[in-house]
Amino acid sequence: MPATLQNNSPVLIAAISGRSLAAAACRAGFRPFVADLFNDSDTLRLAERAIRLPGNLQTGIEPDGLVERLAALADGDVPQAVIYGSGFERTPEMVDAIARHFFVAGNSARTMRAVKDPASLAALCTSLGIPHPEIRMDRPERLDGWLMKLAGGAGGSHVTLAGAGADKPDRYFQRFVEGRNISALFIADGKEVRLIGFSRQWSAPSETSPYRYGGAVRLLRYHKRKRAQIGAWLTMLTARTGLVGLCSADFIDGPSGLWLIEINPRPGATLDIFDSKETPLLREHLNAVRGTTVKRPAYAGSVASAIAYTSHPIQLFPPIEWPDMTADHQPPGSVLDAGDPVCTVFASARSAASAERAVKSRIRALAAHWKEGSP
Question: pLDDT tens digits, residue range 217-234?
Fold first, then answer.
């Protein structure tokens, strides 16, 4: 483990999409070396070095040869750390393989399995008295009120109504709970947590993915009692599993109270709306993993981010002069299927409701560039 955090030192980033981590690394004063599945133009602009990894959105990153690819990316430089994002949930042993060669700023495979395996998380919640929807591995006789999910899935695209399609390998069933989707971003040190903030998330339903991730908005405030309850639950889970670094937890806040749905033991989709130049979260992530003091950012106003999807196939994606407050752009000439992501859009405002309205309005305006039948 590096003794101190050195400005302008390289960090290796490995993820399905490394753009947001690369941007956060730049804000933290590091030099990002990125390995991901896309190598989109934004990532290439931010990264000092970048390589494209084999894999896909469904199965994640291909484990064979990953360590060798990261070593080639480092090319003799000694990185401050390897920071991983999405893509490792279904094959957590990759994290331990990387850790045999580099310092990994994040959770071990053991911790990842403890919180990402559905049965393990359900058992943990039961033992700690944390409300968690009933799960089962066998198909319920009556499917009403049940969801079908993929173990280790991310982004909501893997979630369907039970019975809406054929059963898949590694699927499990979870009781549907009514309410709002609330996410807590926190930093853990293996024993306790420091809450960074809360966001409200929404879905962008498609015919095949009714719970596909749509976007999130940073909340200026959240109910004091619920905030304290969530902090206590996450501290109990951290003490039991050894969670470290920047993580998030997804909850349903509804008529029957708070329910913990999922733990993401890594920097996730809301990093963009919480990170700032004043208190770079990736620096605090590394501080927490190293066991040093963590600072909590102070926020003013709200920020929202959302994903723009295409509703129809596009044989030749048109050239677009992308406006500010957008990222993850599809390059001209891309071939897209219906439901593919086109870009990420951001908006800021004084209130969460205004920021959410603004980001959705921007998506509708941008969609005119790739509407069906347009050149």
Answer: 999 999 999 999 999 999
CB-based contact 149:172 (threshold 8 Å): yes
Tell me the chain's radius of gyration from C-alpha atoms.
20
Q: Tokens 């982004």 belong to which residue?
A: 155
Of all residues in the chain, the percent with pLDDT exceeding 70 is 97
Q: Over the chain, what HEC string results?
A: CCCCCCCCCEEEEECCCCHHHHHHHHHCCCEEEEEECCCCHHHHHHCCEEEECCEECCCEECCCCHHHHHHHHHCCCCCCCEEECCCCCCCCHHHHHHHCCCCECCCCHHHHHHHHCHHHHHHHHHHHCCCCCCEECCCCCCCCCEEEEECCCCCCCCCEECCCCCCCCCEEEEECCCCEEEEEEEEEECCCEEEEEEEEEEECCCCCCCCCEEEEEECCCCCHHHHHHHHHHHHHHHHHHCCEEEEEEEEEEECCEEEEEEEECCCCCCHHHHCCCCCCHHHHHHHHHHCCCCCCCCCCCEEEEEEEECCCCECCCCCCCCCCCEECCCCCCCCECCCCEEEEEEEEECCHHHHHHHHHHHHHHHHHHHCCCCC
Measuring CA to CA, which residue among 117, 78, 119, 82 is closest to residue 97?
82
CA 236 distance to own-chain centroid: 22
Domains of the chain: 10-105 (3.40.50.20), 112-290 (3.30.470.20), 302-370 (no CATH)
Q: How far apart are CA 268 and CA 373, in angstroms?
A: 35
Q: How far is CA 244 from the centre of its chain?
A: 16
In angstroms, the CA 103 to CA 277 distance is 25
Tens-place pLDDT, residues 286-314: 999 998 888 888 899 999 999 999 999 99
The answer to whether the predicted template modeling score (pTM) of the entire model surpasses 0.85 is yes
